[in-house]
Amino acid sequence: MNTTELQRIKQRYNIVGNSDGLNRALDVALQVAPTDLSVLIIGESGVGKEIIPRVIHDNSPRRREKYFAINCGSIPEGTIDSELFGHEKGAFTGAIGESEGYFGIANKGTIFLDEVGELPLATQARLLRVLETGEYIRVGGTEIRKTNVRIVAATNVNMQKAISEGRFREDLYYRLNTIPIKMPPLRERGQDIILLFRLFAMQMAEKYRLPKITLTEDAKAQMLRYKWPGNVRQLKNITEQMSVLSENREIDTDTLLHFIPQDQESTQLAVIQHNGGNHSYENERELLYKVLYELQGNVSDLRKELNTVRKQMEEVRDLNGAIGFTAVHTENLPTTQRQGKGNVNVEDAIAEEISEPETLNLSDLGRQLVEKALERNNGNRKKAAQELGISDRTLYRRLKQYGLE
């Protein structure tokens, strides 16, 4: 590891810190820069992964060519292929002209794909072809195009887990991961935390002409104990907040604790001593996931059953409406409705049934409606369906349901 070269890089890119993990990441970046090998940067959100591809590009033979940084998670799935690989005129609604896409524009340069784990599977297949052959096809096109682009990717997700879950292609992962670079989380960088705090405090003081804030020794110890789940980005935000809101310019532990969230002491699963050994809650979490999954299935089944009941009730209501049914007794109906001329009036038949003292449920009511209609039409299903105002198919379904086939 060339110490002089590392210091030069840190000064050029305003990188603060001297931890072993940070120095190792920068050293690997400088070693791989002269090559065209693909690089995958792994690290939590907020650790500063975006500086590594810039270092690689600026120290490579491609440094005079174009450099593009693309956040794959911020581009909608429906347009990401067009953004990356371009499109032909008329390829989709709104494609009023041709587009080169990043891989066309960045030919001979470098493309940094941040949050590469968020790429859709179809786009992953296109990217794999570019990595393997340097060839791609525009959206809506048929012509094979060539590009000579160096790809540096970064991710904050567990790629092995994403592969096992089918969210990321294993072959693409190994293509991207030719040279892995791990950016350490802030909690593993020791005294770099204090150095970064001083930098951010000085920047705020100069920018807004404020007295610079400092830390007491106890506050420094508290800063080093905190887990910093948001990493460098969180440290910068908290320093800026204290610079503006704190009346006391010397930050002690009590003041610091007002700005540090107390419910985020760790980004890891809790580990306790159990029967003389370590015990994590990994198994309990998996069990909870299974319970939630089963509960989701039960809710889905219940929703289906509810929809079936609702549909049956609507069909019975339609049957009632088709024959002008109202739940009244025969003595309340006009004489013209109760007396037919040679035929039994439908309203009379229904009123007769309803006037019986026993209470019928919806299924019994529907069954009796169908039975009476078939009786009056001598078993002719077509005429019975017409009388009820329903289709032959619906009547057949009702017959099957009521066991009247």
Describe the structure in your own words.
- The structure is a single chain.
- This protein has helices at about 5-15, 20-30, 50-60, 80-85, 100-105, 120-135, 160-165, 170-175, 190-210, 215-225, 230-245, 255-260, 280-320, 335-340, 345-355, 360-375, 380-390, 390-400; strands at about 40, 65-70, 110-115, 135, 145, 150-155, 180, 215, 250, 270-275, 275-280.
- It is of the alpha/beta class.
- The strands form four sheets. A five-stranded parallel β-sheet has the order 2-3-6-1-7, covered by helices on one side. The protein has a two-stranded antiparallel sheet with strand order 4-5. Strands 8-9 form a two-stranded parallel sheet.
- β4 and β5 (about 145) form a beta hairpin.
User: Can you count the helices?
Assistant: 18
**Low-confidence sequence ranges:** 264-281, 325-360
| Basic shape | elongated
* SS-derived structural category: alpha/beta
Name the features.
18 helices; 405 residues; 5-stranded parallel beta sheet; two-stranded antiparallel sheet; alpha/beta; 11 strands
